[in-house]
Backbone:
């Protein structure tokens, strides 16, 4: 009776997920077609081809963290238990946070590279004989290193505004801290008549050295990150090995008292170990 109830709950969760991914977006597309007045709209639920097309389209929109829920549903069906479904649902926000943090780190690195390119392009434009304002306009257009604040900096450079202040405001973006050095070079060159190109060369060299140092540290920590990932997937490999040997690990873990105790203790130790390893790697990377 418990197994049938668990199977029914897992099937209900899977059906709800399919409805959220397919039916709701099908209705939205049908409403858009009706309001637009174009095309032929068929009535009734979507066919299998349409559902598969919707799933393929939504695969790019949804994050990879939803695969945790799919894996939980599959394990719930195989083990006739709602515990994997609950664990998969609980893992979705955690994996989303990890994905967003990775995207933010990649965006920060791209912005830092764009700032370096901006400094080099600006130095080249100044050496070519252009005025600082015109050189900044050309360099900002070519490199895009100012990010969201590019419009304010371009307007200040074009209309004689406070360019150092605009650069300092743009430097508040993660990864664009090098613009503070550019603002200082600009202020010294304008106020004291110092050479802007020389200061930009020194700033470009310093930013490149800092980037190379971060890349070297990232390469040195690659082994530690790989070890952390390996330790995280070892329990799954153990379950697969046990299933291959015919030990039925899912039935033992999900339907016996000792198995549930081992599952709770193992999950707690696994989470603590991964958290500790990630914290050590992050602490080493922040040095």
Residues:
């Amino acid at each position: 009776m418990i197994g049938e109830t668990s199977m029914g709950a897992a099937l209900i969760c899977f059906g709800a997920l399919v409805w959220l991914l397919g039916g709701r977006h099908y209705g939205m597309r049908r409403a858009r077609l009706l309001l637009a007045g174009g095309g032929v709209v068929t009535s009734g639920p979507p066919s299998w081809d349409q559902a598969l097309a919707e799933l393929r389209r939504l695969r790019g929109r949804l994050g990879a963290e939803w695969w945790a829920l799919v894996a939980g549903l599959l394990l719930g069906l195989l083990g006739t238990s709602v515990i994997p479904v609950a664990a998969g649902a609980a893992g979705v926000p955690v994996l989303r946070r990890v994905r967003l943090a990775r995207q933010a780190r990649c965006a920060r690195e791209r912005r830092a590279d764009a700032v370096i390119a901006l400094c080099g392009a600006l130095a080249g434009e100044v050496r070519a004989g252009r005025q600082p304002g015109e050189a900044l306009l050309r360099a900002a257009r070519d490199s895009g290193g100012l990010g969201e604040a590019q419009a304010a900096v371009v307007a200040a450079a074009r209309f004689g505004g406070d360019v150092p202040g605009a650069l300092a405001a743009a430097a508040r973006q993660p990864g664009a801290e090098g613009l503070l050095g550019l603002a200082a070079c600009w202020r010294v060159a304008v106020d004291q008549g110092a050479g802007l190109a020389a200061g930009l060369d020194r700033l470009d060299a310093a930013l490149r050295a800092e980037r190379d140092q971060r890349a070297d540290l990232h390469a040195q920590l690659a082994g530690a990150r790989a070890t952390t990932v390996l330790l995280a997937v070892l329990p799954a490999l153990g379950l697969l090995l046990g299933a291959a040997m015919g030990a039925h690990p899912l039935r033992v873990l999900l339907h016996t008292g000792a198995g549930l105790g081992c599952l709770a203790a193992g999950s707690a130790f696994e989470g603590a170990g991964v958290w500790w390893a990630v914290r050590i790697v992050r602490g080493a990377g922040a040095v």
